[in-house]
Automatic annotation (TrEMBL):
Organism listed in the record: Flavobacterium gillisiae
Membership in a protein family: Belongs to the vitamin-B12 independent methionine synthase family.
Cofactor mode of binding and number, as noted: Binds 1 zinc ion per subunit. Binds 2 Zn(2+) ions per subunit.
Record-linked InterPro entries: Cbl-indep_Met_Synth_N (IPR013215), Cobalamin-indep_Met_synthase (IPR006276), Met_Synth_C/arc (IPR002629), UROD/MetE-like_sf (IPR038071)
Role description: Catalyzes the transfer of a methyl group from 5-methyltetrahydrofolate to homocysteine resulting in methionine formation.
Identification of the protein by name: 5-methyltetrahydropteroyltriglutamate--homocysteine methyltransferase
Cobalamin-independent methionine synthase MetE C-terminal/archaeal domain: residues covered: 440-762
Listed cofactors: Zn(2+)
């Protein structure tokens, strides 16, 4: 029974890769220094896995930015617009230019599009294909890293995204073809790679085909059969491991199992029942190996050895121990690096810590599980087993997890809790009377610039260099200036600016029961950007109001309406590590009740307009369409629970960015927010069509300018966009606002842009 790992975090335990990349981009270290950092990280990762006892250690799982972009470069998929840049620059700089754009000495290229990797918070660079797309072996990274590992003394298993998934991850840049049609032109380059790896004596190669977890067309399934049949014909001696993760094979099961490969990797965390289906089917070819992904690569909980051993035993009984490997469910790049670095009891208590495992610990779990499942159990393994059982029992019984009041409250939810008192048309009349807003009311999405200064105050507070009183005074001053600016520029609905918030989820998590935080639990989000999701370990409740003080303070400064700002339950859930001992829907409902209490308290404090941000609703959609309805049902209901505790004349806003709405517009309407603001400007209002076609009944604020860029738009550009919007949405339903919060912008451009925005709204009013 071998141990198998699919990928290891490349950011390194202290985010060394982030630091080195950012220094390189600033010109503060040389390319050689950056390359040396990469080499060092790879070596450390191989060494760690080797010492832990992993048999199949991945190589080519390292990346300076993104593994999909690596593959595009490997296959020579370089869009036309970078060709001139490529001539004058190193491959490394070309790579970074494709990832993040480049502006230097007359060269000006934009970044390629980025999107989420399946249902994770990892973002990849989307490959672009043309009709006559050519492929060639442009970079030998995968071969070089295999050789590098060998030189360092490690036999590795190169990892590559399979040809079918690679094509499906991309996008056609021209009409008149489907990217899957390119498979015949693409395969020869994969053959080149396999030939070179074979020449270097590589034995195992892992092909990731995560699209096997999605709904595929017959053509796509046929492409898979064609691809792996051809590979097997040409390279019968290479042992191909076909890796699927994040969900079951579903209706692709028969196709998948028919592929002539050496091993199948299964995600038994997301899809434990599949093991039984596979073992009972007659589809598994004799001798094929099953890599059992029993350890959760997507979450931070310690494995439950007892459960895993039951699954493993089931497989061993059916096919024999020599056809079973033990593995994490997916690549460990979705886990933080090392729990041993969490030494701060204030952020993570020892009680909670004993329930957790990060990447390094998961690798150890893989090996112990293998030992336990085989007949060579050492004393050490036995001790591990007992420790694991104890930790899991402790967790089940822990008093800090369970809160009966919360459980009872969830159990007693009835329909009226997720329903406003009156339907929207009735509420609307009351809100019009109460709020007295002009046509095309202007507002912002919440945050104002989080300057280095503002962030330094928070850092000083943490270090004790500022007292809470001093810190508050500084924030109050910043808030007051922001209110004054909004008044002067003529914005109708003001915000306080969110200066007190580090992050829109962490800020709430820190004030809720049931949440814990890590000091160093970073996970790569994109490129050098990492996130540190909170850990939801127990029943969630809100001991005290969380935002009322700041909203009230801001409202006291002005006769205009100040909008209260909250993060919604689905987004808090989606951007955290969520407990795995109850359904996500239950945890989400608990959070919804906590937010509901906050909404009610804001209303009591005199706040008449309250925004509940839900940018993550769309990304929470399951991978398979047949599971969408169930998710949307509880997710939308959670939002409604959070929003429905207030009277009719209190106006509830929600905000969503990076979303497409076409296929979920009915659900968006079911949220029944009085006003929804959406990111829209980069699509030139195209995203609004879904709302127009649906005849979306409530009010809507399509973003009129892109906040991701420092560029200041003119009022005319925004008028043009608003006219587009007004052509499809009745004007008395329209609001005027930016695409998203302004926290990443500088004050100078923020002020100019908002002044232009107000000008645009006024021009629209005059035109009526
Ligand atoms: N209110 C938040 C802000 O303005 C919303 C952020 C988001 O949608 N991602 O920053
Ligand atoms: Zn947003």
């Amino acid at each position: 029974m071998k141990t198998n790992n699919l990928g290891y975090p490349r950011i390194s335990s202290n985010r060394e890769l982030k630091k080195a990349s950012e220094l390189y981009w600033l010109g503060k270290i040389t390319a050689d220094e950056l390359l040396a950092t990469g080499k060092n990280i790879r070596k450390e990762n191989w060494e760690l896995q080797h010492n832990a006892g992993i048999d199949l250690i991945p190589s080519n799982d390292f990346s300076f930015y993104d593994q999909v972009l690596d593959l595009s470069l490997t296959l020579g998929v370089i869009p036309e617009q970078y060709k001139a840049f490529a001539k004058e620059n190193s491959v490394l700089d070309l790579y970074f230019a494709m990832a993040r754009g480049a502006q230097k000495e007359g060269q000006d290229v934009v970044a390629m599009e980025m999107t989420k990797w399946f249902d994770t918070n990892y973002h990849y660079i989307v490959p672009e294909f043309t009709k006559d797309q050519e492929f060639r072996l442009f970079s030998e990274k995968i071969i070089d890293e295999y050789k590098e590992a060998k030189t360092a003394g490690y036999e590795t298993k190169p990892v590559i995204i399979g040809p079918v998934s690679y094509l499906l991850l991309g996008k056609e840049k021209q009409e008149g073809f489907h990217r899957i049609d390119l498979i015949n032109k693409l395969l020869p380059v994969y053959f080149d790679i396999l030939q070179k790896l074979q020449d270097e004596k590589a034995t195992y190669i892992q092909f990731d085909e995560p699209f096997l977890a999605l709904n595929l067309s017959d053509i796509e399934r046929a492409a898979l059969v064609y691809t792996y049949t051809k590979i097997n014909e040409k390279f019968p001696n290479i042992k191909i491991i076909l890796a699927n993760y994040f969900d079951c094979f579903g209706e692709n099961l028969a196709t998948a199992l028919s592929l002539p490969v050496h091993a199948f990797h299964l995600d038994l965390v997301r899809c434990p029942l599949q093991l039984g289906d596979i073992l009972q089917s007659n589809l598994l070819v004799k001798n094929t190996i099953l890599s059992l992904g029993v350890i959760d690569g997507r979450n931070i909980w310690k494995n439950d050895f007892k459960n895993s051993l039951t699954l493993i035993q089931q497989a061993v009984d059916a096919v024999g121990a020599d056809r079973i490997w033990i593995a994490p469910s997916c690549s460990l790049i979705h886990s933080p690096c090392d729990l041993d670095l969490e030494t701060n009891d204030a952020t993570l208590t020892p009680e909670i810590k004993q329930w957790l495992a990060f990447a390094k610990q998961k690798v150890e779990e893989v090996v112990v599980l293998r030992n336990l499942a085989s007949n060579e159990i050492t004393e050490d393994d036995q001790a591990h087993y007992e420790e694991n059982t104890l930790a899991n029992t402790n967790r089940k019984k822990a008093t800090i997890i369970h809160n009966d009041a919360v459980k009872n409250r969830v159990a007693s939810i009835v329909e009226k809790h997720s329903k406003r008192n009156s339907p929207f048309p009735v509420r609307r009349q009351q809100q019009i009377a109460a709020l007295q807003l002009p046509l095309f009311p202007t507002t912002t999405i919440g945050s104002f610039p989080q300057t280095p200064e503002v962030r330094s105050w928070r850092a000083k507070l943490k270090k004790g260099e500022l007292s809470p009183t001093e810190y508050n005074a500084l924030l109050q001053k910043e808030t007051e200036e922001t209110i004054r600016f909004q008044e002067e520029s003529g914005i109708d609905v003001l915000v306080h600016g969110e200066f007190e918030r580090n992050d829109m989820v962490e800020y709430f998590g820190e004030q809720l029961e049931g949440f814990a935080f890590t000091k160093n639990g970073w996970v790569q989000s994109y490129g050098s950007r990492c996130v540190k999701p909170p850990v939801i370990y127990g029943d969630v409740s809100r001991p005290n109001p969380m935002t009322v003080k700041w909203a009230q303070f801001a409202q006291s400064l002005t006769p205009k309406w100040v909008k209260g700002m909250l993060t919604g339950p689905v987004t808090i859930l989606q951007w955290s590590f969520v407990r795995n001992d109850q359904p996500r829907s239950v945890t989400c409902t608990q959070i919804a009740l906590a937010i509901r209490d906050e909404v009610v308290d804001l209303e009591k404090a005199g706040i008449k307009i309250i925004q509940i941000d839900e940018p993550a609703i769309r990304e929470g959609l399951p991978l398979r369409k047949e599971e969408w309805a169930a998710y949307l049902d509880w997710a939308i209901k959670a939002f409604r629970i959070s929003a429905s505790g207030v009277s009719d004349d209190t106006q509830i806003h929600t905000h969503m960015c990076y979303s497409e709405f076409n296929d979920i517009i009915q659900n968006i309407a079911d949220m029944d927010a009085d006003v929804i603001t959406i990111e829209c400007s980069r699509s030139q209002m195209e995203l609004l069509d879904a709302f127009a076609d649906f005849k979306y009944p409530n009010e809507i604020g399509p973003g009129v300018y892109d906040i991701h860029s420092p560029r200041v738009p003119s009022s005319q550009e925004m008028v043009d966009l608003l006219e587009k919007a007004a052509a499809v949405i009745p004007i008395d339903q329209l609001w005027v606002n930016p695409d998203c919060g302004l926290k990443t912008r500088h004050w100078d451009e923020t002020k100019k842009a908002l002044v232009e925005m107000v000008k645009a709204a006024k021009q629209m009013r005059v035109a009526v």
